[in-house]
Write a structure and sequence with these properties.
Blueprint: E1 2-3, H1 9-17, H2 19-28, H3 36-47, E2 54-58, H4 64-72, E3 77-82, H5 85-97, E4 104-108, E5 121-127, H6 136-146, E6 147-160, H7 167-177, E7 181-182, H8 185-194, E8 197-204, H9 208-221, H10 224-230, H11 235-253, E9 257-266
Parallel strand pairs: 2-3, 2-5, 3-4, 5-6
Antiparallel strand pairs: 1-7, 6-9, 8-9
Helix pairs in contact: 3-4, 9-11
Amino acid sequence: MKVNPRVGLEDVRQVYSGPEGDLWELVMGEQIHIGGLTSSLDLAEKAGIREGWKGVDLCCCNGAGMRFLVRFRKAASMTGVDATEKVIQRGKEYTKAEGLEEKIRFVHAEATDTGLPGGEADFVWGEDAWCYVENKEKLITEAARLVKPGGVIAFTDWVEGPAGLSDEEADRFLTFMKFPSVQDIPGYKGLLEKNGCKVLRAEDTGRFAPYVDLYLGMLGKQLTYDALKIIGFDEELFGTLAGEMAFLGELAKAGKIAQGLFVGVKE
């Protein structure tokens, strides 16, 4: 696992309380994760999420994952946990606009210490967001605490790829993305097993590189004005951000970073 001690939770909050978070939502939509609805459907299918289940979404951001699960997988209820007030408020607005507020609630807390009762959730969910959590071991421990025996932990996340990151590449990647740490696929698999879970899936989705190309194409060909407006028409900053995103694409194509998919069942 690669770690950046200069990045912490407050840095993450600043991202999603400001223009950088708005920029990610512009490019990726409400589902701020690689693959959007395609990725969500894939994860839900591989995890066997069933109608009537009750779930917890850790690092839920604006709640798009919960709305997906209620609408497309008929989840009975969802509780979303996030540490950033702005995205929770935005999520409540989006959820009310879709008429789903009776089935979805938001909790302002850290994902490693939710304060929610243990052993009650049918499943814990996450999509490309646990990379923002510094202590991955505490995160997986909390996820395992929340689910009942036989419950499912299902998530995707940005991970270090099999080719590995050099220290210099890791520092640049983590600093740009405001990730305190990034786990790899064997690392997450080990943490799930350590916390009493049988791992059904621990794999690279293969989506990372082509989707970065898609985002760069959208910014360069269609959403340039919209993106510039979000960042105060700072063209130099726009160029820097585009350059760093291109760097992500290079890392992904070299097998150094990836989108991992994980499904574990609590035994």
